[in-house]
Amino acid sequence: MIAASARLPEVPALVAREHYFLVHAPRQTGKTTTLRALAAGLTASGEYAAVKLSLQSGAAFGDDIGGATRAILAKARREARLTLPADLRPPVWPEGPDGDLFGGALAAWAEFCPRPLVLFLDEIDSLTGATLVAVLSQIREGFEDRPGAFPASIALCGLRDVRDYRTASGGNPERSGGPSPFNIIVESLRLGDFTLDEVRELYGQHTAETGRVFTDEAVAHVFALTGGQPWLVNALAAEIVDRMKIPAAEPVTVEQVDTARERVIQARPSHLDSLVRRLREPEVQRVLLPVLAGSQEPVDLEYSDDRSFVRDLGLITEDGGEGPRIANPIYAEVISRALAEQVVPSPAALPTARDFVLPDGRFDVPGALTSLAAFWRTHGKMLGDGRPYAEALPHAFLFAWLDRAVNGDGDVFREYANGGGRADLYLRWRYTAGDGTRAEQREVFEVKTHRAGQANPLKDAIVQLDDYLNHLGLSSGYIVIFDQRPQTMPDTDEPLTTQASPSGHSIAIARLALPPGRDQTQARS
Fold first, then answer.
1. Where are the beta strands (DSSP E) in 301-454?
2. Where are any strands of DSSP class E within 274-393?
3. Mean pLDDT of 417-446
4. CA distance from start to end of the chain
5. 153-158 and 410-417 strand pairing
6. What is the pLDDT of residues 207-255, one digit of tens each?
7. Band of residue 165 on the pLDDT scale cut at 50, 70, 90
8. What is the rounded CA–CA span in Å between residue 464 and residue 446?
């Protein structure tokens, strides 16, 4: 358990100043757990009566304000009974018109309670339409009566930032005046992912309780794979401890973390499945396509709103000032595999593990790319009109091809560079060398598409791959160009050509042409 005070350190000061504020976070980041802990800490201080109240029970009632409010208040009474001493629990809720039930109940509770009342209203975004407007308006109306006759401090807690609730409640997100409930919100807090130190602390607590040690390298690898996303951090550990059943006396290694990663992705639990379902939403497609295809972002206000939405969902991050990118490598893999399912006719069409293993145990990259080129000439037409993320599908297809080929003995990771026209693949293959020792082979792929009317991307690809190889300390790499121009024949019968980069690295180039007869419309899709 990471201390709530460390995850949202601003909250105690906001409560002390009797502020109303917003807490937002993606799903399954520990928000509800953190809110409960904050409320318990404030109550335990003896200064406040603090409780987390879920509004989700009102969601089923839609625009039925009375029905929704009564369900919310019934749930609030149960939560107060479970978490507060008897003298801090609410009195009998007063009767009143539907449009004042919620505000009247909060006012009665604040007047009855011997301490200032602090509420964390969780799942505010589960309410919609008239019910959301009614709840927010009653909070706004009671604000001036705090702390004696209305809660001293209220936090609205959900998935989205304040702008989106303002829009949902019928207000103009660009205006701060007028009767909007949001001119009383002084701050919007985002519950972030775990830091590396917090992952170390979390796993360290497990070690202290059980004696099971995660090596420093394994913990760092968990953080690298998850970006600190709380559900993923816990899912990998749970996979190792509960399902892989690594003995407690055996230190957990990087290789075991990689095995857990693959098992979690293959299982596609509800957290990852909901991520895949989000890919169908137009707002998500609009933001992710430039990231996945390495193309330029649109420049308009609608795109800016969509990007904020996708960031609030936790699908992208913008840390580092390099533009949006997929939030973590595990999400990137899940997205790539989901997209690849659109173009792979069946799993049987992909290579199987160990199809491309050389006699010395190394992975046969040229053999894999040569086989891919032959497959593409026959099946490249699968990139037909109307498919979502059409521009990114070649990248996803190459990922799926290599991922299947190295399954069990290696890994393939995606690295995206939005706006730079690049999407890199990084392959890691583990094998037994001739002397019996375990060795690791690393390969890098720069992935490009060449469409009608566009300049040949090869020159830029060589420069970009050269920089990447310098960064990784590798001597060679691969460029894969999906040539989607109509009626284009390969420049050579050889599936791979080689040339030197500016820094002297050996660059192998594979150009995959469209099958003959493909029409111009399909090529542009």
1. 316-317, 325-326, 410-417, 422-432, 438-450
2. 316-317, 325-326
3. 80
4. 48
5. unpaired
6. 999 999 999 999 999 999 999 999 999 999 999 999 998 888 999 999 8
7. low
8. 8
pLDDT at residue number 422: 55
**DSSP element (H, E) containing 520:** helix 520-524
Spell 409-421 as b/e; 16+ CB within 10 A means b: bbbbbbebbbeeb
Q: Which residue bears the tokens 């939403």?
A: 281
Burial of 175 (0-12, 13-18, 19+ CB in 10 A): exposed
As beta bridge partners, residue 512 has 482
Q: Do residues 479 and 448 touch, judged by C-beta distance below 8 A?
A: yes
> Count of CB atoms within 10 A of residue 88's CB?
19
pLDDT range class, residue 521, cuts 50, 70, 90:
very low
Could you please report the per-residue DSSP string of 68-87?
A: HHHHHHHHHHHHHHHHS-GG
| Rounded Cα–Cα distance for residues 7 and 195 (Å) | 10
Strand 316-317 to 325-326 pairing? antiparallel
Q: What's the Rg (C-alpha) of the chain? A: 27
Tokens 């791959």, residue located:
465
CB of 302 closer than 8 Å to CB of 396: no
pTM above 0.85, yes or no: no
Q: How many CB atoms lie within 10 A of CB 1?
A: 10
Closest CA to 279 of 383, 382, 389: 389
Q: Are strands 185-190 and 20-24 parallel, antiparallel or unpaired?
A: parallel
